[in-house]
Amino acid sequence: MKAPRTFAAAAVAAVALLSGCASSPSYNSGNNGGYNNTASMGYGTIESIQVTQAENRTSGGGAVVGALVGALAGNQVGSGSGRTAATVAGGVGGALVGNNIEKNRNAGSGQEMYQVNVRMDNGEYRTVVQDSVYDLRVGNRVRLVDGRVYRY
Known about the structure:
The chain contains three helices and five strands. It has helices spanning 2-19, 61-74, 81-105; strands spanning 42-53, 112-120, 125-130, 141-145, 148-151.
């Protein structure tokens, strides 16, 4: 009866560890050429539009499934405290493998994104990354609202 408790404790510990690794998507490329990408309202003119690929992110589902499978496999090894260590190690290893499998599976589905660089009326430069540009062109007067660029 002790083995199911140990497995449950190891599974909860693995999921708790992995949930700290989750993050929300961010499309900031890091090097934006002096452009400020704050997301407030304002008016300006489009300086440039560049096509970029969205970063390949995972949902965390592969890591969770991998952790559970790895912990289950690790629980079959050894006895006593050795079994507990094997269960935790299996959970962590399974999470890493599951996350990599999910990332590789999603590799071909990178979505095109558009980096729109705007010179604001107050002289600042802002960069917005969005999924479409519709009828936006370089030189258009635009309005920036909540991190999206709209034709003005």
